[in-house]
């Protein structure tokens, strides 16, 4: 047996080595390229070696050999994870998911003091959400994507959802069924709204989609998939789930095509979608053509995302009908690609559990061969749906942390709950993976890195205190007790397990102004599940850090990130004082507190200008780069303004769903609403008249729409210097007032 093991290892090493020589060094070369992108001119410090998989599980080691750092892994993914673990635990560096530059490494890279070995508990590590392609990704170029793909590889992700360029496939498909290019582009929505078009929630909004965008996204997707695959990932692409253009009802009059019940998100009926009966022969025909064209353009890893009824009502709730949906989607996939695996999110079953009863879900699941349908348990920090559905009635699932809606910048990271639930889920028979389904790249990187790191840790290492200490060290770039204390305070007192911070939240500034906060719109809730004084304590501890720690970009981000939330929370106190003064008709007090309220908001806006992660100008510049002419640039900027504010129409059901504390957005959008609100309250006090909330709401809707349409205004796209100075000054300015407000 011992001879067999030696022979197997020699064979594996020979294959690994020969592959490198024959194929131009694909494994070592890709890892060295990754290292070079993250740590320029440092790849020569690393030796890359093969490692046997442990019982089919991914595994890596970090070691030393002479003056070289040795990275061993059973595949490219494991080696990328080894590289990141070396950075995090040996060099104490943090490569952020919004990184805009390589890391600044020490002149001489430290050698690991001892060998580090990690084995992954799960096979699949999933990342992204259909919505992320609207709230974060719609305007990214390859440079932005390249850094993010590196981050995904370095965090062990091997199942990224990659949906860019999908419309290039559909353009070819629908043309072959008799539609014109003009009809098809009109059917598509605008760039940031494509996720909801793809999920059959709406058609046409923000269209017609420019053909140039479709073509550029096709070229981009080819680059993205090539890079993902070179780093060992198997990207999940799209499949046909039943959503069709309304023109098909005319082109195929004898085919049963249902009009979905209108009104999703408050949309008018003209944006309603159509669903093709899965039992119709045309269903399989469209699926076959879509997958064939997609393979021709992008290749395949045989993994397909399809969600037939996301937040919409199926044409029928009959169990036999739902079974036919499941059967038709999978069988049509399998006919086009015999190796097809179907990925489906559980969100719609959780979202509409009243109608999606377990017998109905079981009917759809059981119509698909076991192992061919994998569920993404979408929001496990709130509800582990596998526990309510008999483990998805036998279908395998991936445990996912969502944590963010709409790209909101609200601080939330229920790390104790997440680690505890992960500890328990690894032993569940149906669990095949861990991942994240966040709607937007946001202000809480710690919790996402923790989710992805935890499957690689042994039971003793899956300890929140230990995880956070290591995280604090790499945020400072060294062991700094002040930074450790700050992060422990955050973990124990601010990042609490209450679900109140998970849904669509904001600070008071992002709330559409009103007299009674209880009547706030559902998309903005300024409630916090912790004491603001605890957040202040953490920031004061962070400010005690050493000079070298303060030079780290990750430290500076954390300081600005925590401080902007602290000040936003304090805004609620001033709002309550202001409304109280108004109700009591204390004119002088009202004027004083309303002035302070606006001043605080303007201070927050200036603070946000010091970090690229919080710049409206960067978002708009990314959008504008997709245009070739001024008219095209204005189109993209308008689309970018719309998705983060009105979503579709001013004062509509989804207005402020994607609210964010961003420089420029605070000053020109949120604060302008508050200034008008305060001016009207002031006038009603001066004239002893009643404030008319309805009239103000009408004004608000018009203002919001005008703001979206006003694409000429320029905003800074690069941050101002002085993040630490700005944050420190504001903490000192407001800390006594915050403490007095307790």
Overview of the molecule:
- The protein is of the alpha/beta class and 742 residues long.
- Helix content is 49%, strand content 8%.
- The strands form three sheets. An eight-stranded parallel beta sheet has the order 6-5-15-14-13-12-11-7. Strands 1-3-2-4 form a four-stranded mixed beta sheet. The protein has a three-stranded antiparallel beta sheet with strand order 8-10-9, with no helix packed on it.
- Helix 16 links the parallel strand 14 and strand 15.
- Helix 22 (553-583) runs parallel beside helix 28 (723-740).
- The longest helix is centred in the C-terminal third of the chain and has 31 residues, at 553-583.
- It is globular, with a radius of gyration of 26 Å.
- The chain starts with a helix and ends with a helix.
- Residues 1-24 have low confidence and may be disordered.
């Amino acid at each position: 047996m011992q001879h067999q093991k030696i022979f197997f290892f020699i064979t594996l090493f020979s294959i690994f080595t020969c592959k490198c020589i024959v194929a131009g060094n694909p494994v070592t070369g890709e890892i060295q390229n990754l290292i070079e992108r993250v740590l320029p001119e440092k790849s020569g410090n690393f030796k890359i070696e093969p490692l046997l998989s442990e019982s089919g599980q991914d595994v890596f080691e970090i070691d030393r050999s002479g003056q070289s750092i040795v990275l061993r892994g059973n595949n490219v993914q494991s080696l990328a994870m080894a590289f990141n673990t070396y950075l995090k635990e040996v060099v104490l560096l943090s490569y952020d998911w919004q990184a805009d530059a390589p890391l600044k490494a020490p002149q001489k890279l430290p050698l690991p003091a001892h060998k580090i070995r990690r084995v992954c508990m799960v096979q699949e590590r999933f990342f992204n959400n259909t919505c992320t392609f609207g709230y974060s990704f719609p305007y990214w170029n390859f440079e932005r994507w390249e850094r993010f793909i590196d981050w995904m590889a370095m965090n062990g992700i091997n199942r990224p959802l990659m949906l860019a360029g999908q419309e290039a496939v559909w353009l070819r498909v629908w043309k072959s069924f008799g539609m014109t290019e003009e009809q098809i582009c009109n059917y598509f929505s605008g760039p940031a709204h494509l996720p909801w078009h793809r999920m059959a929630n709406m058609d046409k909004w923000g269209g017609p989609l420019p053909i140039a965008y479709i073509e550029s996204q096709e070229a981009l997707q080819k680059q993205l998939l090539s890079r993902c695959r070179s780093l060992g990932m198997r990207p999940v692409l799209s499949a046909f789930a039943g959503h069709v253009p309304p023109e098909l009802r005319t082109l195929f009059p004898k085919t049963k095509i249902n009009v979905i019940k209108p009104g999703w998100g408050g949309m008018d009926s003209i944006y309603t979608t159509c669903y093709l009966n899965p039992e119709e022969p045309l269903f399989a025909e469209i699926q076959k053509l879509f997958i064939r064209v997609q393979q021709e353009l992008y290749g395949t890893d045989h993994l397909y995302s399809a969600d037939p009824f996301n937040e919409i009502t199926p044409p029928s709730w009959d169990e036999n009908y739902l079974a036919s949906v499941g059967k038709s989607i999978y069988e049509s996939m399998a006919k086009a690609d015999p190796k097809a695996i179907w990925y489906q999110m559980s969100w719609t079953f959780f979202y509409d559990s009243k109608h999606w009863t377990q017998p109905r879900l079981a009917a759809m699941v059981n119509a698909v061969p076991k192992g061919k349908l994998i569920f993404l348990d979408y929001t496990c920090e709130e509800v582990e749906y596998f526990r309510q559905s008999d483990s998805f009635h036998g279908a395998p699932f991936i445990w996912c942390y969502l944590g963010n809606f709409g790209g909101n910048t609200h601080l939330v990271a229920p790390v104790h709950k997440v680690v505890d639930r992960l500890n328990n889920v690894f032993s569940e028979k149906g669990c095949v993976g861990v991942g994240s389904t966040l709607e937007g790249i946001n202000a809480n990187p710690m919790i996402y890195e923790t989710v992805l790191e935890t499957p690689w840790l042994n039971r003793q290492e899956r300890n929140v205190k230990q995880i956070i200490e290591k995280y604090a060290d790499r945020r400072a770039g060294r062991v700094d007790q002040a930074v450790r204390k700050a992060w422990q305070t955050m973990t124990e007192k601010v990042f609490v397990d209450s679900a109140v911070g998970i849904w669509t939240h904001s600070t008071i500034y992002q709330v559409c102004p009103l007299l009674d906060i209880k009547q706030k719109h559902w998309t903005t809730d300024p409630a916090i599940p912790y004491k603001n004084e605890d957040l202040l304590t953490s920031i004061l501890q962070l400010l005690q850090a050493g000079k070298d720690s303060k030079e780290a970009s990750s430290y500076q981000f954390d300081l600005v990130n925590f401080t902007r939330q602290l000040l936003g929370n304090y805004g609620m106190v001033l709002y309550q004082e202001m409304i109280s003064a108004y109700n009591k008709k204390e004119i002088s007090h009202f004027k004083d507190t309303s002035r302070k309220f606006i001043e605080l908001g303007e201070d927050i806006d200036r603070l946000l200008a010091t970090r690229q992660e919080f710049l409206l100008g960067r978002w708009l510049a990314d959008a504008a780069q997709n245009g070739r002419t001024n008219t095209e640039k204005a189109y993209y900027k308008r689309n970018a303004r719309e998705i983060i504010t009105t979503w579709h129409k001013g004062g509509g059901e989804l207005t402020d769903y994607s609210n964010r504390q961003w420089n420029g957005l605070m000053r020109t959008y949120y604060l302008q609403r508050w200034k008008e609100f305060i001016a009207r309250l002031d006038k009603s006090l001066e004239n002893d008249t009643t404030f008319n909330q309805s009239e103000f709401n009408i004004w608000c809707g018009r203002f919001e729409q005008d703001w979206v349409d006003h694409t000429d205004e320029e905003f800074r796209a690069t941050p101002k210097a002085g993040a630490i100075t700005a944050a420190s000054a504001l903490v000192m300015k407001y800390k006594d007032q915050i403490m007095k407000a307790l």
